[in-house]
Amino acid sequence: MIRLAEMRTASAMHGTFRSSAVGVPVLMRISTAAKSTSSNSSTSLLDISTKVLNESDILKHDDKSFITHNLFPHPEFGTKECEEVKYEHREPRNVSDTIAFRGVNFFRWCFDMVTGYKKPRNDHDLETGFKGTRWEMTENKWLTRIIFLESIAGVPGMVAAFLRHLHSLRLLKRDRAWIETLLDEAYNERMHLLTFIKLGQPSWFTRFIIYVGQGVFCNAFFLCYLMVPKYCHRFVGYIEEEAVSTYSHLVYELDTKKLPKFDHMRVPPVAIQYWTELDENSTFRDLILRVRADEAKHREVNHTLANLDSTDRNPFAMKIEEVDKPQPENGLKVQRPTGWEKKDLIL
């Protein structure tokens, strides 16, 4: 009897979601796309979704002419180093940090609602994967979330580099090597995006949301960086923490075989060219490990830059040899996930 009552309750809730999706609110229609995408029966024009491409479609959409070398060569990441990357959080230490952290949490909540994602809070959430609910992640939902995330993630580095470039020209002085690292970060995030759009084709409404999101975020970040650059780098550092968390969840779902379409998906040539340790035999999981490692590095870089003054030397631009204490580098051998403190750096 209890089981029958639970089934009736679940049926009633399911009916409520279905009826609400017919009405005016777009958010409910978007967030319930998980049910339709899992059965591949979605027909709504306002669904935020991404079609997972098969191997023939991936090859058909591959660019094979006028391929140039990467402007910023990617450091080689070993598989063991990538496996060891994990979520680590920097506790807020002042009012600015707290505002940045809570701001990221708010925007993450909005993003999760739109993409139908729920962050696992315990082992039970991880094991069940929210199966049968609107929070259950499918291959197309993962690609939708990743593509939207990477389309936004490439903005901060480029905006910050642009403003520091103008600052250097205006004041007729060197930038202390911040521009190069910021441009590299923006380039890296764009390469993530270029890789994933070879694997999935976003719906027109997803593209529209990307247009709007980029426009709003780019202008807001531009104005904030003019006034409080330290806050902006801390904000990005917290964003990258969440990115590491999300990709770690994806790796877990790949390991537990919850995403069969990704099991035999080939890594696109653009990724093999950029991450030189990948090859034609590399798996989708190998790719995700590299992307997660990149996000972990951005987390470290931005938390570090938030600890520095804008006139300090960028410690990631040049590796200092023969010193008696560890210093930052572009690889994964020496890391401080929550950022390097100024007192520990040779500036």
Write the SSE topology.
Elements: H1 2-22, H2 26-31, H3 33-38, E1 50-52, H4 55-60, H5 79-83, H6 95-115, H7 123-128, H8 139-153, H9 155-171, H10 178-196, E2 200-202, H11 204-227, H12 229-255, H13 260-263, H14 269-274, H15 284-307
Antiparallel strand pairs: 1-2
Transmembrane segments: 142-163, 208-228
GO molecular function: alternative oxidase activity; metal ion binding
Protein name: Alternative oxidase
Task: Please provide a brief summary of the model.
This is Alternative oxidase. The chain is mainly α.
Describe the protein in words.
This protein is an all-alpha fold and 347 residues long. The protein has a single domain, classed as Alternative oxidase (Ferritin, Up-down Bundle). 60% of the residues lie in helices and 2% in strands. The protein has a two-stranded antiparallel sheet. Helix 8 packs antiparallel against helix 10 (178-196) and helix 9 packs antiparallel against helix 10. The chain is globular. Mean pLDDT is 84; it is low at 1-43. Belongs to the alternative oxidase family.
List keywords for this structure.
347 residues, Ferritin, 15 helices, mitochondrion, transmembrane helix
CATH topology description: Ferritin
Given the C-alpha coordinates, what overall shape results? globular
The H-and-E topology, N to C, reads as HHHEHHHHHHHEHHHHH
- Which ranges are low-confidence, i.e. pLDDT below 50, for 5 or more consecutive residues? 1-43
Strand order of the largest sheet: 1-2
CATH class placement: Mainly Alpha
Rg of Cα set? 21 Å
What count of domains describes the coordinates?
1
The residue-averaged pLDDT reads 84
> What percent strand?
under 5%
Q: Measure the end-to-end span.
A: 70 Å
In CATH, what is the homologous superfamily? Alternative oxidase
Largest sheet geometry = 2 strands, antiparallel
If classified by CATH, what would the architecture be? Up-down Bundle
What proportion of the residues is helical, as a percent range? 55-70%
β-strand number? 2
How many helical elements? 15
Helix/strand-derived category reads: mainly alpha
GO molecular function: alternative oxidase activity; metal ion binding
Keywords: Electron transport, Iron, Membrane, Metal-binding, Mitochondrion, Mitochondrion inner membrane, Oxidoreductase, Respiratory chain, Transit peptide, Transmembrane, Transmembrane helix, Transport
Pfam family, one: AOX
Family: Belongs to the alternative oxidase family.
